[in-house]
Amino acid sequence: MFAKRSHHSESFSKHRAARSTNKAKRSFRENAATPKKTSRPTNPHSSPGTASTLTSPIITICVGSEQRLFAAHEDILSSSPFFAAICRGQFLESASKRVNLPDDLPEVFSSVLEYLYKGDYYPRLLHNKRRNAWELEDVTENSGGRGAVESTVYHQGAGQTLLKDTLLYCTAERYGLEELKRLALRKQGLQSGIQCSTILASARYAYANTPDSDSKLRAHYLALIIRSRSTFKRSGTMQMEMEAGGKLFFDLFVALCNHMDDISSITRTPR
Q1: What count of Cα atoms within 13 Å lies in the side-chain half-sphere of residue 98?
Q2: Tell me, what's the pLDDT at 144?
Q3: Phi, psi of 173 (to 5 degrees)
């Protein structure tokens, strides 16, 4: 999925979506208790009540057009306001304990479920204390990982290949999982080598599936395009997308103007 940069197949490889060297706490959610070279996000459900949570009724979730089946404990699902409302409304006196999500993607929902149980999804986010930087775990099989993982997913409804972390962010928005949104955004910032067409398609999807009040994912894409402008200005896909228009490109224009104003104010400031 990582593509070499060429005149016909532009990719975003020189500039990351966000810096990975920002100072941060030792783990994504809270400081780890044990000193190690790297630390992992802690499980949000690792509390004295976990045992009772895992004895709650099992819910069957039917996901996507292919109706892939997942199973989860009701109390785990109910940590999402979206599923809590469904469970209160549909399952109060129901014996089937089944939820249908025909418009969701199994690849994305699987990661959501993994996050609900473990506090992270594969590949996990680790903090390298020696470099003081966030990084994704080594996914090679030689390192004990599950093997290479694709950072993109084909979305049949959109008819395009999109960044998986963007899909997770938008799904977390719908499910009311704010911490998962932050995690997905941080992970997306560590991706590189993504084709311009995938970035632009994912940006459009983000704009279509987040509220206008969203100040994280939308701003992330605007900053990414500005930072990688030398690549995007050579992109035929960028030209076609801009000609098609949309709120994304108005926001991009405003962001570029603000960027130029900042540069002008710096150059005018006497030293």
Answers
A1: 9
A2: 56
A3: -60, -45
Q: Would you list the DSSP string of 61-106?
A: EEETTTTEEEEEEHHHHTTSHHHHHHHHHHSSS-SS-EEEETTS-H
Contact between 129 and 39 under an 8 Å Cβ cutoff? The reply is yes
Please state, in angstroms and rounded to a whole number, the distance separating the CA atoms of residues 180 and 34.
24
Q: Exposed, middle or buried: residue 157 (CB in 10 Å: 0-12, 13-18, 19+)?
A: exposed
pLDDT at position 105 over 80: yes
Cα 217 to Cα 177: distance, rounded to the nearest angstrom: 14
How far separated are the first and last CA of the chain, in Å rounded?
47
- Amino acid sitting at position 15: H
pLDDT digits (tens, 9 = 90+) for 131-179: 999 899 875 544 555 555 789 999 998 899 999 999 999 999 999 999 9
Tokens of 197: 């067409």
Angle (deg, nearest 10), helices 81-90 and 164-175:
50
Helix ranges (H only) for the chain are 50-53, 74-77, 81-90, 106-118, 164-175, 178-188, 196-208, 217-227, 229-232, 236-244, 247-268
Q: How far is Cα 132 from Cα 145, in angstroms, rounded to an integer?
A: 22
Non-local (6+) Cβ contacts of 164 within 8 A are 107, 108, 111, 150, 151, 152, 153
What torsion, rounded to 10 degrees, do the Cα atoms 182, 183, 184, 189 define?
90
Which class for 79: exposed (0-12), middle (13-18), buried (19 or more C-beta within 10 A)?
middle
d(CA 108, CA 173): 13
Of 106, 121, 122, which is closest to residue 156 (Cα–Cα)? 106
Rounded to whole angstroms, the maximal C-alpha distance in the chain is 73
